Amino acid sequence: MRKLAVFNHVSLDGYFVDMNGDMSWAKADHSDAEWNTFVSENASGEGALVFGRITYEMMASFWPTPFAIETMPAVAAGMNSMEKVVFSRTLKQALWNNTKLVKGDPATEMRKLKKEPGKDMVILGSGNIVAQLAQESLIDEYQIVVNPIVLGKGRTMFDSLKKKLTLKLTRSRTFGNGNVFLCYAPR
Amino acid sequence: MRKLAVFNHVSLDGYFVDMNGDMSWAKADHSDAEWNTFVSENASGEGALVFGRITYEMMASFWPTPFAIETMPAVAAGMNSMEKVVFSRTLKQALWNNTKLVKGDPATEMRKLKKEPGKDMVILGSGNIVAQLAQESLIDEYQIVVNPIVLGKGRTMFDSLKKKLTLKLTRSRTFGNGNVFLCYAPR
Fold first, then answer.
1. How many other C-beta atoms can be found within 10 angstroms of the C-beta atom of residue B3?
2. Which residue has the higher pLDDT, B117 or B32?
3. Which of A68, A97, A115, B65 is most buried as measured by Cβ atoms within 10 A of its Cβ?
4. Do A125 and A51 contact (CB within 8 A), yes or no?
5. 0.90 surpassed by pTM
6. pLDDT, tens only, A67-91
7. Which of B164, B168, B169 sits opposite A151 (nearest CB)?
8. A18: closest CA of chain B, how far (Å)
9. ipTM, interface predicted TM-score of the complex
């Protein structure tokens, strides 16, 4: 069975986007070489990426641009070539390279996807999708980068979750730029 | 000048209390001896404790009880004997041992307190006080324990903060029970 992980940056107050949907606060300090290696390795993985519509449209409008390709070549190459799934009832088409548009209920469709042969999957951003799939116990790993910043207001990726989720810390790593990578499995 | 820290548990989604003001989810796993030592050492410190009214009343109704003293003797002894400050406009009196009731504006009063001779101070709980004093750059250290749980809904200790707060990670420590202690200073 294919595994499903989520990888997201959060602020110390738990938000993956600020009140305007912005996540650029999470990229502030790239002067840490160890951190940059970690980011590049993550993006060059073999997995498939999973998105909700909002994050998909944001990333689809950024990663194929010359700016992205020139400033972050390794990450951009990975993001543009990897297999992608986007859940949306409203999108008519999904034009970013190698994307499958899925219109059905995310939990139902993810149950099917996990049983199909294929690569392991990672959700990026996509708070609504994370909450829905976490609720249905479909997420096998939570990869969270706690950033050294407090936003004051924003959205968590677990908003609307109807039950508490108890987790098991499986690994952690601290970076010189103040980011802390925490990895959890469901209990 | 006296230093002011905050020490709080948060869920992975950033909340220090759930929607009912409950923080008992943060005490679930005490089977980790290293963690228990860490908690006891924290509570037996030389510092003074700082509270808003809500957390003060909750703690004042718990720590002096025989139940608290019998089940957590080291922590209870520390909590009951340490100097305490409670900020409240509405409290008439503060009867928990060794408490000073302060009725003025928390930021103004904290500026005065920090200049007086005395022990370093630690805020526990007290989200409204944390947000007000963080806003005014009066907090010197943020000591946060990230618990391996997602609450879905709750209150952060930074709600109503009007500006982003950029921090510097100064230390971190991972415990076998899945708690991660993160310590930050303002930038």
1. 13
2. B117
3. A68
4. yes
5. yes
6. 999 998 888 998 999 999 999 999 9
7. B164
8. 10
9. 0.92
Q: How far A40 CA sits from the closest chain B CA (Å)?
A: 23
Which CA distances in Å does B152 have to A132, A159, A161, B38, B177? 11, 5, 5, 28, 21
Residue-wise pLDDT tens digits, B55-92: 999 999 999 999 999 998 888 998 999 999 999 999 99
The count of structural domains within chain B is 1
Give the B-side interface with A, CB within 8 Å. Answer: 10-15, 25, 28, 131, 134, 142, 144, 146, 148-153, 156-169, 172, 174, 178-180, 182, 184
- Taking all residues of chain A, what is their mean pLDDT, rounded to a whole number? 93
Q: How many other CB atoms sit within 10 Å of the CB of residue A34? A: 11
Using the beta-carbon criterion (under 8 Å), do B184 and A12 form an inter-chain contact? yes
Single-letter amino acid code for the residue at B11:
S
The CATH number of the domain holding residue A89 is: 3.40.430.10
Residues 6+ apart with CB under 8 A from A112: none
> Under a CB-based contact definition with an 8 Å cutoff, are residues B185 and A42 in contact?
no
